Amino acid sequence: MNSAEETQLADDLRHIVQTGAPAPDLDDVERRGLREQRRAVALRSLAAVGVVGIATAGSLIAFRHPGAAGAAPVAVAPTKTASGQPTSTTESQLDNVAYVRQQVGAAHDPANSVVEMKQSAIDASNPAQTVWTDPATVNEMLSWVSAGGKVTTWQHQYLDSQRVVNLDDTEVDYGPRTWSYRTEKFSEPWSGPAPTTPVNGITYIPATEAKNMLAQGNVTIVGHPVADGHRTVELSISLGKQGKAETMYLYVDSQTFQVVRLVRVFAPDSAHPASATSDYIWVRRTPALTRLINHPQIPAGFTQVPAAS
Q: Fewer beta carbons within 10 Å, N or C terminal of the chain?
């Protein structure tokens, strides 16, 4: 790395990690991500319906699927011409499962980006959290607020020389000013290509995984709500046997066909409550952001303690 790159990286890190402060300032990173998202949504809207179409959009109706947590998305009526016909061929095919499957299968994750996921609270032991994932390394940084204060963890996943999955977990607790480290090693070697998503749970859904889910599940189109600023196609996917089935609702952007929201409705006999919602934002990749995700930040003066089991 040359001196110019080192200077730029130092400047970026100072914006994200406050020098001398006990915690990384993730708010600035999140604000940048939201600005990127708003610009992208605005450009998509202009391209899809034009300025006049935006001004004369149809009426809005409230929408909520059974068991969904949090605020209900809002559905919009399809934009139509004066004759009442859809404005494009794509518009008329958004209720066609085969067409939507094909488009999702052809979609690609945004290049040179990382993923910010905002997940709703599941229960008292699983509070709302923000998860940053670097698709290039499959490493994650998670942040949430517990009874003791803010907590950030870094979860790093890799294959060792025997192709066994290893998970390194570094946790920083800003309330008691402590940190811990633990590592976990899976017992069986991993077969096939290296995993492209974290193996310790569902985080974001990459384009390849969305394609596989739609190919295998019992898929129906529920509607076309607006989710986190995106006009979407909402797809219902039934998984498992009747009585023990979990239903996933994938919300794919109606222009890019990338997944922007996932809602999981758990089986009645599940240990989880009714549902959990995750929203995804693709954020431009920067040296400072990838460094923050891939390298745990342990503030000076924090005390190492044994990791929780």
A: C
